[in-house]
Amino acid sequence: MSSDNPIEIVGLRKEYGGFVAVDNLNLSVKKNSFTGFLGPNGAGKSTTLKILTHLINASSGEAYINGIDVTKDPKAALTNVGTVVETPEFYPYLTPRETLRYVGQIIGMNTESIKSETDRILEKVKMLEWEDKKLGTFSKGMRQRIAIGQALMNGPSVIILDEPTSGLDPRGQAEMREIMKNLRNDSNNLTVIMSSHVLHEVSDLCDRIALINHGKMIIQDDMSVIEKSSGKRRVTIKVESTPSPLMTHMVEQLDNVVSAERYGNDIEAVVEGDISACVKFFKDISSLNIGAYGVSEEDNLETTYLKLIKESG
Ligand code: ATP
User: Fold this and answer.
1) Any residues with Cβ below 6 Å from ligand 1, and which?
2) How does residue 3 score in pLDDT terms, banded at 50, 70 and 90?
3) Rounded distance, CA 287 to CA 81, Å?
4) pLDDT digits (tens, 9 = 90+) for 213-243
5) DSSP strands (E only) in 85-214
6) Relative to the CA of 47, which ligand 1 atom is closest?
């Protein structure tokens, strides 16, 4: 196995009864990357991550972490790996500090390391304020921060997360994103794979994408490559008064514009082509007499994602 890929999945297959949920899947997660693991509902993401963390067995194929096959030697493969894959259950009568101490004991850390790691992690997951309160009183967002915290115990080199912000309110999602961003910025030896449906979150955090559908790999590459691969950009044009149908039509008639529609007080347009097409578009918009005062590019990952999923059937 390549030392550049702490996670390597080869020809993975999982059948539930006669149904194939993961179908000859190959996935390589590059060292020190943050990889967004994407795909529609039922694509097979959780199944893959559960096999990778040895919560379920594969029907066939191999899944390596740090060069060790999880299907053959799960204990060794999962040493130095932090996971949040199924909704974690914690003892409600323990505090965050006691919970992390308990996790430290289970993974065989000594008392001194447990103390220093607990201090470090409670700060990282912004739990110092509640370190001595019982988990039973915590919100879902707070429990999820503890879940991330337990995954960080003993400084793992690989972290596997299944929809870390799922079910959190906007504030909880933003807090979780900030924790993950800090993790990315502070660590120089950390490989993360996280499944998510929140594409702007993935754009924000990840530098690699692996996209699956019907249990098969569609594409895995750098975010920058994937974002450009649709050849289309979604842009928002801010106009000083509510856009009229005529204004939207005028935008739609511009060169390289595939479509334009009113969206609230803005006009959203899809522009096709390379950077020079965009340069021309920006010039054309400013010379159009529609009171445009701002143009911004939207999340390209969504445009590409929708195109690739549609093509993959
Ligand atoms: P989501 O984004 O909705 O969480 P997912 O990509 O994680 O979806 P999986 O949960 O891996 O998808 O499910 C893949 C397919 O396998 C789905 O069709 C699902 O219904 C099916 N499946 C998952 N677990 C089981 C199970 N225990 N028994 C039978 N079928 C299952």
Assistant:
1) 16, 19, 21, 39, 41-47
2) low
3) 55
4) 999 999 999 988 887 777 788 889 999 988 9
5) 158-162, 191-195, 208-213
6) 11
